[in-house]
Amino acid sequence: EAGVAQSPRYKIIEKRQSVAFWCNPISGHATLYWYQQILGQGPKLLIQFQNNGVVDDSQLPKDRFSAERLKGVDSTLKIQPAKLEDSAVYLCASSLAGGGYTEAFFGQGTRLTVV
Amino acid sequence: TQLLEQSPQFLSIQEGENLTVYCNSSSVFSSLQWYRQEPGEGPVLLVTVVTGGEVKKLKRLTFQFGDARKDSSLHITAAQPGDTGLYLCAAPSGGSNYKLTFGKGTLLTVNP
């Protein structure tokens, strides 16, 4: 079974530039998550989709971050414009359902460096 | 917002030693998960606990869910260098009990 695919693996941009990350979840998984993980810390949930609807985006900085999940499958996360503090690993995960009873499968993440 | 507090934040031990890490909250969990994350990889699920007082064993790892379902512990017996990683607890949070929230993790280093 193919896992969660993310691209790119690494990205370096200058502040105020824009960047986009792509995620392809495991086939059949209704729930998709985007997390931000700063070095040495646990993942922070940015946005959670159930199919193509948003379940929670309360911690998404909506003035600069946006995310969409087209047709309930692939998802993109965009940052525009980027700030230095956005440097982090962006993890995408998917699960059959939301909550804490089902396993969340993670991609390898995209490491973003803003200089 | 439900806060998951993990301790210790860092732990460095020698191969063969035993250790315990903790995950605590003031809120009651319907369930709790433990993940391990290795450098450059995403977290991988180790176990899900659901019932208060539940104990689950995974080889040298023993997971315990508190009777009141507010806390959990992970005990590793005879740690090995391969156990090195970031140990994260996660639980559903929010009014819908639907979103998965993580603690900040315990970074474990097992030295040969």
Describe this structure in words.
The complex is a heterodimer of chains A (115) and B (112). Chain A has no helices and eleven strands. Chain A is mostly beta strands and 115 residues long. In chain A, a hairpin with a 6-residue loop joins strand 4 and strand 5. Chain B is mainly beta and 112 residues long. Chain B is globular and about 40 Å long. Classes of the chains: A mainly beta (115), B mainly beta (112). At the A-B interface, strand 5 and strand 9 of A face strand 5, strand 9 and strand 10 of B.
> What percentage of the residues of chain B does DSSP assign to strands (E)?
over 45%
DSSP summary: helix tally of chain B = 0
CATH topology of chain A: Immunoglobulin-like
Radius of gyration of chain B: 14 Å
Q: Describe the global form of chain A.
A: globular
Number of domains of chain B: 1
